[in-house]
Amino acid sequence: MTTRFFAWIGQPADMGSPAKEKVERYSVRKVTGDGRCLFRALVKGMALNKGMVLGPREERDSADELRMAVKEVICDSEKERLQYQEALVAITVDEPLRSYCQRIGRPDFWGGEAELLVDEILTMSL
């Protein structure tokens, strides 16, 4: 049986399907480890998917914008927060929401599972 983790392992069962003929390319890119590295990696990947390369300042600023977008939906809007129940569970298992909201505003905040869950929804339209 073929298993899919990050890419096809072995031959797919049905090569006739256009969806299965999609070419997937992966690469490893260096990301500055400054506390905002998760957000840097996400914006760098989104830019590369659009054929763009971000300069260091643009990468940093875009990473901070993405982090602040997560903060806005989780911390600043109770109505929007309800759309991110999985992220809220991941956050509140470790700390109170109020404490999290204070920390995520800092540029050295380390992103993790909760931020990936929110970013997945935020970036779907990009």
Automatic annotation (TrEMBL):
Domain OTU residues, every copy: 26-126
Keywords recorded for this protein, A-Z: Cytoplasm, Hydrolase, Protease, Thiol protease, Ubl conjugation pathway
Superkingdom of the organism of origin: Eukaryota
Reactions listed under catalytic activity: Thiol-dependent hydrolysis of ester, thioester, amide, peptide and isopeptide bonds formed by the C-terminal Gly of ubiquitin (a 76-residue protein attached to proteins as an intracellular targeting signal)
SUPFAM superfamilies, A to Z: Cysteine proteinases (SSF54001)
InterPro entries: OTU_dom, Papain-like_cys_pep_sf
UniProt-listed GO biological process terms: endoplasmic reticulum unfolded protein response; ERAD pathway; protein deubiquitination
E.C. code: 3.4.19.12
Cellular component aspect of the GO annotation: cytosol; nucleus
One GO molecular-function entry: cysteine-type deubiquitinase activity
Enzyme class: hydrolase
Principal subcellular localisation of the protein: cytoplasm
Compartment list: Cytoplasm
Record's function text: Hydrolase that can remove conjugated ubiquitin from proteins and may therefore play an important regulatory role at the level of protein turnover by preventing degradation.
Protein name (Swiss-Prot/TrEMBL): Ubiquitin thioesterase OTU
Lineage: Eukaryota, Viridiplantae, Streptophyta, Embryophyta, Tracheophyta
